[in-house]
Request: fold
Amino acid sequence: MPVPNMDLSEGLEALGFSRVPGADTWRHNGVSFAAEGAWGVLRTSAAVAGDPLAAQWGRAGLWKAVSVGMRHRRPARGASVGARGSRFRRIFELPLATVAEREGDADAGAAEGRAVSPFEAAIAWGLATLDGQCPPGWRAPARAEVEKHVPPGGLTMRSGAHARQGEVVADGGRLALRMAILAHLPAGLSECRLAWLRQLLLDAQDRWRLVRLAPVADAGDGPVEAEVDLTGAPPWLLDGLVPVAASALRHAVAWVVGPCAFLAHAVREPRALALCSGARDVARLACPAVSSARTPLLDKPAVPPLREGPAVPLSHKPERG
Reply:
């Protein structure tokens, strides 16, 4: 989908952004904005410290950590998460069509006595949740109201032998769509399996827009989940954003569930696991019948299409390291 025909400059300038000379990028207080295809993307300049999966999990808004640089490498022995040589930055991604369709709509409200465009209000949401906290005075709508925006079957994932049901979390200061990848992660998994499980989750978080993956404790145990957090979102934005978020969540879980289930539940430790050089190799171990020329587990998840769905690309094309 092309970038909607919108003038973004007025809203960005109202929020304090300044255009970078000779570029289509805007900056303000360590945060940059750029329109990338059908998406508007905020990025922080500061590197993410610690576990990139834990950096934003359970925190307010769409911010998440993604890798910059080398990806899809074998996890180094004893490494926490991510590819060797990777750096991580936080991003906030917004499908521009969800605000373009509301241009001229008075429901976006006003601020400081002036009209606010839907685009400006949506970017202001991103800035308000930069610290991961719920904006003051914001309350989640009733769960039933949010569920009205989910297309039929929109939170039901079926991929091969795996089926998962997502849920809407709406509780006071929290609004999210969440789906379990694994209901329970057995304790006592080997260092090799845990390292690959983390890498697969990070690859999924890199690839699928909007979706965050839960951190995995070294000791194992507990569930492995994915979420899209909509805390702080303007109420008028939800009717367009929730279907996109539900679709991204379903596809991300379908993309990673098979290899994750293999890593968690295989009876024996395959010697080949230690020799894997990328997520595709792990997927081939999880599904030996897959041809080496194509790996559906990581190329095109078998998610049944819905009659209603977003016409925006949900997946990044990851670079090869």
